Model the fold of this input.
Amino acid sequence: MKTLQELLYKVQLLATDGHTDKPVSGIAFDSRSVTEGNVFVATVGTQVDGHQYISKAIEKGATAIVCQTLPETRTEGITYVQVRDSEKALGLMASRFYDNPSAKMKVVGITGTNGKTTTVTLLYRLFRALGYNVGLLSTVQNEINGEVIPSTHTTPDAVQLNALMAEMVRRGCTYCFMEASSHAIVQHRIAGIQFAGAAFSNITHDHLDYHQTFDNYIKAKKQLFDELPVQAFALVNIDDKRGRVMVQNTKANIKTYSLQTMADFRARLISNSLHGLHLEINQQEVWFQLIGNFNAYNLLAVYGVAVSLGEDSDEVLRVLSSLPSAVGRFDRIVSANGITAIVDYAHTPDALQNVLETIAELRTGNEKVITIVGCGGNRDKTKRPIMAGVACQFSDHVILTSDNPRDEEPEDILAQMQAGVTPSNFRKTQTIIDREEAIRKACAMAAPHDIVLVAGKGHETYQEIKGVKYPFDDKKIIEAIFSTL
Ligand SMILES: CC(=O)N[C@H]1[C@@H](OP(=O)(O)OP(=O)(O)OC[C@H]2O[C@@H](n3ccc(=O)[nH]c3=O)[C@H](O)[C@@H]2O)O[C@H](CO)[C@@H](O)[C@@H]1O[C@H](C)C(=O)N[C@@H](C)C(=O)N[C@H](CCC(=O)O)C(=O)O
Ligand SMILES: Nc1ncnc2c1ncn2[C@@H]1O[C@H](COP(=O)(O)OP(=O)(O)OP(=O)(O)O)[C@@H](O)[C@H]1O
Ligand SMILES: N[C@H](CCC[C@H](N)C(=O)O)C(=O)O
Ligand SMILES: [Mg+2]
Done:
C-alpha cells in the first residue's frame, strides 16, 4: 500500500494537520463510496460542495482528508491536507496510486466538439489491426483488447481513468486512445496523465451551460495542448479557425492537417457518396467506408496520429480504408420497401448541419428528408432553437421530439426548440413528445426512397427521464418498425 505522502508527490500543498506517512487503501471523492482506510478528496462541485461530506466520509472509514478549505472541527487521528485545487490533486493522486499507468503506454487524447468518438474508435481498431494491444476510452464504450467495459462518461473520472489505464498496462497495452472532453479538462480528470500526443478536431457551439462563454470553451480545449510535454505531438485541424490558437502556447511538436491548404497531413476530397469517401491522400487515391465530408477530417486526424506515432503511411491507409464508422454515427438501416433511416449522434448545431448537408449531397432524385430531433435536458439551452432551425433549413419535414429530458420538463425543452422555427417553416414542423411515437410517425410518412434522419442519440441504449434510464434504442425501434413494412 502506498502512503498518503507518496500520493501527494507533485501536489501543491497549503497546509497539513496530522501524519502523512500513513498507508492509504484507496482514493474516494464521493462520501458514499468511501471504504475503510481511504483518503477522501473533497471537491467543490457544480451541484454541491464536497466539503460538506467530510464528516460522512470519516464515518465511513476515511482516515485522511484532502480539501481546499480545512474544516473548523477536526476529528482526532484523521490527517487533513489543504491543497490549492482538489480536483487537480485528485488527478495527480490517482495517477500515483495506480503507479502512473499513462507513462507506461503511449496515450493519445482527442479533443474537439465533434468527431472525438469516431476518431478514437478508428484509431483503436487501426492499431488493433496493426497487431498491437490497445485500450480505448470513449463515449460509446471503453475497451481493452476487444473486451468491452461500459463507459459512464466521455472521459472517466480521475480514479476510474487511472484504474482503467492500469488494467490496460496489466494486459500489455502499448497504446491508449482516449477522448478528452472539455468538462474533463476543466475538472482536471486528466491531471497526471502523460500524453504521447493530442489532436484537435474542431470547436463549435456546445456546452455553454457549463463553460458560460465560447472563449472559456476554447480555453478549456486549449489547456490540453498547453500542458503537453515537449516530446509529445500536438496535431490540429487548421481548417478550423481555432486550430492554430489551440497550439500557440504548446511545448509539443506541432503538426497540422487540412483538406484545404498546405499542412503536414493533407488530403483532397475527390468524391463523397453513399458508398463512402474517395480521397487523395499521401499522393494516392483511397476509398474509405465512412460517409460524409466531415468524416474526411476524422480519417485525416487518424492518419496524422498514426503516422506521428511512427506507423508506416501505406500500411495505415491500407487498414484504415477497410474500417467502418463507430456505432450510431451515420448508421444506415434500409427497409424492404426502400426507405433509408439514418441514426446519427448529431447533438450539436454543427453536427446536425453536417449530417443534413451530407444527406443533401447524397440525394439522387426528389427523395424527401424527414428529420427527427430533440435536445438533452440539463444541458446547453442555447443550442435548442438553433438545432430546430438547422433541422428545418435542411429538411422537408421535421418532427421535434424528446432526447434525454433528464430533470427538465420535455415540454419546456420542446418550446425552446420551437422558438427556432421561423414562420415560413411552421407548416413542415410538428412536435411529438414521445420519441418512439415520433419515429413511428416519420416512418409512416416516408415513401420508398425517402430518408429519415433520427438525430441526437446515436449509440445510446437508454432514455434518461428524471434520474431513471429507461431502455431506448433508436436503431432497434427503427428495425422493429421496418420489419413490419
Ligand atoms: C457537470 C459535471 O461535469 N459534473 C461532473 C462532476 O460532478 P460535480 O463535481 O459537479 O459533482 P457534484 O454533484 O456537484 O458533487 C460535488 C462533490 O461532492 C461529492 N459528493 C456528493 C454527494 C454526496 O453525498 N457525497 C459526496 O461526496 C461528489 O462526489 C463530488 O465529488 O464530477 C463528477 C465526477 O467526475 C462527474 O460524474 C460529474 O458528471 C456529471 C454526472 C455529468 O453529467 N457530466 C457530463 C456533463 C460530462 O462530464 N460530460 C462530458 C462529455 C461532454 C462532451 O460530450 O463533450 C464527459 O466527459 O462525459
Ligand atoms: N469531424 C467532424 N466534424 C463535424 N461533425 C462531426 C465530425 N465527426 C462527427 N461529426 C458529427 O458529430 C456527431 C458526433 O460524433 P462523435 O461521436 O464522433 O463526436 P464526439 O466529439 O465524440 O461527441 P461527444 O462530445 O458527445 O463525445 C456525429 O454523429 C456526426 O453527426
Ligand atoms: N456528451 C454529450 C452527449 C449529448 C447527447 C444527447 N443525447 C443528450 O443527451 O444531450 C453531453 O453529455 O452533453
Ligand atoms: Mg464522444
The CA atoms of residues 56 and 300 lie 50 Å apart. The chain has three domains: 2-93, 99-321, 331-483. The first strand starts at residue 13 and ends at 17.
